[in-house]
Each structure stands twice: as structure tokens, then as C-alpha cells.
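Complex record, two chains
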Amino acid sequence: MSDHFVTHVTFTIRRTTPASPAQVFAAFADPRVKLQWQSSPDTLAVDDAEGYLEFDFRVGGHERFGFSMPNGPTFSYDAEYFDIVLDQRIVYRYTMHADGKPDSISLVTIEFVQTAAGTTLTYTEQGAFLDGIDDPALREEGTTDLLDNLVRYLSSYTPTSSS
Amino acid sequence: MSDHFVTHVTFTIRRTTPASPAQVFAAFADPRVKLQWQSSPDTLAVDDAEGYLEFDFRVGGHERFGFSMPNGPTFSYDAEYFDIVLDQRIVYRYTMHADGKPDSISLVTIEFVQTAAGTTLTYTEQGAFLDGIDDPALREEGTTDLLDNLVRYLSSYTPTSSS
């Protein structure tokens, strides 16, 4: 009857790193650090000197950037921070548009817990995907790749490692 | 180690009503209609003539109101619409603050499907609840009560019924 439908998903990704909670937190809070592991030469169109259209890491602030896939649509990412607890937690929603069409909206909770070995990071995304434009399985896969980038980045960043 | 924790929940509520999709959609889109079933004399503090601090039903627009429970905190509700398909779908995020503290953030998808008997409404909420301030089970219960209010309101609104 309608080509409109919504797919609801929740996925959780947990990683450990020898870095401290403050170092892992900074990898999300500081745009220069974030670009080190978040950017991909294949996909991220650098919008300005820092690669972001906007990077305002505070409650109510936005992070925005655009990127395109080879032979694919141009995506616009827009996050708005809801809650930030220094070195412990970041909660935000983000929306994706594909060639200007609403693609998905997600809630993300990132929790940082100090352990004897360093930090355990838990990333939880709750998403609503509209009309089959984007594939939730690919979103989870891409997010997993990004967090593995982060773990690699942090392992070179800190000289001591016990994980 | 920390009193910070997040509870992630998803719940779905489905109701049928003899009203048409356009009538059910209007019950969310028109503030005068919405107040007929959404308000509760026990809880809703009427902020202005229409009971809303803001009611801007369009993509990117906000709906805001405040209310308090007897001997409880004062809650601030702030929704932002992400996607609206006339008579078919509404997608938004909403945040709750309790006495100014971040309480929860949720994604809501409301889908309206025409059936022989009228309309099937499917409400899906994906929520992240912070630090135990609010109880997800009470949220689901309260939302169920509201949608039952809506069904009652719509049953008196439309003279014909076959459900």
C-alpha cells in the first residue's frame, strides 16, 4: 500500500583499550583527535580545515559533516549532544540524510569505564531507518570499523598496554 | 564506581480505531485536537492558552511543554520532528528533563495504516534513560494510557465504527 516503512534496530559494540578514560573521551571531544580515527579517505569529504562543517562539543551543540560514497549518494550527518559527563559518558542523537532525503535517526550512548587494563568503551546505537534507504547491518559494520580504527589509534597513542 | 548508568529500552504499542488515518494523524498534528486527549488535569501545567510552550509541527520544529507530578519533580518535554509523511508517519526525538537534569532521550515512530476497520496506529519508542531518574516501565505505562485516551477520543469523534 505504501513504500514507507521503518526498521528499528539496537546494536552494542564493546571494545577495550589501554588508554585512560580521559584519553578515550578526548578522542570524541576534540575534533583534531577525532579526525585521526573517524575520517576515511574513501568517504569523508573534507568540508573545512578541520573536516567538519560544525563541531560544537557541548550539550545542545551539533557536529555536522558531509560525505559521499563512490557512485553513491551524498550523506549529511548531524549530531546533537544531549548529555556529556566528563570522561564517563556521551549521549547524542544523530540524523542522516541521503541526497537530502531523511535516511535515519539514531540515539547513541557511549560509556567509558576504567578497568585495571585501561578503559572499556561501550557504544550503543538505537536507530530508526526509513524506507530502506540505508541498511542497518551496514551501519553496524561501518561503526564497528570506526571503533576498531579508534582502538588502533589509541594503542599507538599510549605506550603502556596490558590488554 | 559511578552513579552514572543508562538503561536502553524499546517498546511498541499498537491500537486500532475506526477513525481514518487523516483523523488520527490530525490528533497529533493539531495542537487543539492533541490537547483533547494528551492533557491530564493531574499532571499537565498549562503553559499558555494552548497548553504548549511551543507547537511547531513540521520537520525541524519543536513541541515543548512542562508538567509536574504531585510531590514530584517538574518535567520539561522537548520534541523535535525528524520526518513527517502526511497521514502516514511521524518520526521525532524527544528529551525529558526532571528539575533541569537530563532524564531521558527517546526516538518515536508513529505509523498510521488504513485498514477495512479504520486505522491501525503503531507507536514505537526507543529510549535511553539516564541514571535511574525515570522508570522505563512507567514511561511505557503512561504512554499506553495516553494512547488509550486517544482511542477513546477518536471513538466518540467518528460516528461509524466497525472495529
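Note: Chain B has a mean pLDDT of 89.
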